[in-house]
Each structure stands twice: as structure tokens, then as C-alpha cells.
Amino acid sequence: MLAVGIVTEVFGPHGAALPGFDFALCADRPGPVPTDCGVPLSIAHGLDRLAEADLLIALPGAAFRTPPAPAVLDALRAAHERGAVVAAHCVGTFALAAAGLLDGRRATTHWRFAELLAGRHPDVTVEPDALYIDEGSIVTGAGAAAGFDLCLHLLRREHGAALANGVSRDMVLPSHRDGGQAQYLAAPVPENGQDERLAEVLGWAREHLHEPLPVTELARRAMMSKRSFARRFTAATGTTPHAWLRSLRLSRAEELLETTDLPVEEIARQVGYGSAAVLREQFVRRRGVPPRAYRRAFTRTT
Asked: How far apart, in Å, do the first and last CA atoms of the chain sit?
């Protein structure tokens, strides 16, 4: 049920400000489908609906150790052959592997079942630490809440950071998480006085990305020593202050590239990089393309 909730929340309606998707839940046998929380789902669509889809996501289920029905495997293969993007997260990845779509590719799944996937499908390179792995037309994600990471990545890849960020804000989630399956929140939930101060500092940092933001300054604002701040930051977010700021800066740069005509030099200044060359280096390393190429791919149309 968690997986159904994730894809429904990401690809379902988000109000007039954000575009909607033609979204449907399908099964090999339409009708009531049991779930792990005891509430059955009424599925209206069969496998014929998959023939029209641009994106298919195989969801995890309790019976993942048993290969899906041949008709399901045939539908997954047919969708991939005609050019649809086929994705899965958690143990839904086992369905893609059973269809042969992961042979010769990298893939991930829930860390608990990564060894089982690798043992059953030796032609698949299983990377158990990744939140998601993008192999172009095949995309796989890790377990549980990492389904959000997978879906938001697909939104960002196909429709740009502005839309992905808009959807993530609507869901009160980070639009992009660095790191592996040691998952973390990009903005910690306050639990005590120190966490509340830390959350305030992170909010302040978001509004001052154009500044250098050394750890010593962040620690001073949190009223902690540099060492205590770094330790508390990692405990609350699962990453380092440097990695958190880098992810935030690159995400903001993506938005500005998509939605403004600002020169790359000005965007670099606004997100806290000393020059366009530094932004380009980070962008290529983390996003795979230079800023100008990214802008061409996501030029806003009017």
C-alpha cells in the first residue's frame, strides 16, 4: 500500500498550478487486489492499458519471489520494445529481472533483498547502496520511501527541476537526496532545542545560498562548536553540511536555468559558486551535462 500511495501522490493531481498526468493502476486481473494493510484495492484496468503508457512502474508485492504471470512479463517486454520507460522500486525490481529487462544492466532494490536478486539473476549488476539507478529506458529504485526518490527523479529527468520541485514542495519532501540507502531527511524534524536551532539554520542557509556559508558560520548560528555542529548535522540529516549545500545549490541552479534567462555567470553567483567554471564543473560531475546543455533541454516554452 505504501508503494501505491507513493506513485499516486507523485503522479496524481496537485492543483491547477502543476500539470497533471494520465495516471492509472493496472493488474493482470482487474478487480479487488489485497494489500499488506488489509484494505483491498479495486483495480479497474487490465494489462491492455499498459499498451498506451509512456511510463510503467512495477510496484512491490509480497509474492515477489514468484515470477509474475507470463502475460505480465510479455506486457513489460512489449512496453520496453516500443520505447516506453519501464521502472520499478523495492522488490518490484524482481519483475523487471524476471522479464529479462535488467540483463547486462545495473539495478538496485531494497538492500535486504539485494543478495537474493543478484543470486537469482547473475547477469544483473546489483548495486545495493543506491537510492535509484537510471539506465535510460530502465530505472530501478531502492526500498520503501526511496520510491519517492525514483518518481521525483523521473519527473526531474523528463520534465525538469521546476516541476519536480513543485511536486516535492506540495508533498513536503526534498526534491533530491544525495547518498545511498542510508536515507535521511533534507530538513530535519525538530525533536529538541538543538534540532529546532539546526532546522532554523538550514532555513537561513536556503535564503543565503549566494554567500560562502562555511561550516564555522553555520555552527555559530546554531550556537554550537564546529565539531558538535558537524556531528549533530550528520545525525539529523544523514549527510555532511558540504554535501547538503552542494545538493541545494545545484537544485536551485537547475530551477534558474529552466525558468529564467539569466546568464550562467549570474546563476553561479546566485547559488554561491565563485564562477561559471566552478558551477559547470559541479554540474557536469553531479548531473552529467554542462549548465548550457541542461538549459537547452529544458528551455521554457511560452
From this structure: 39
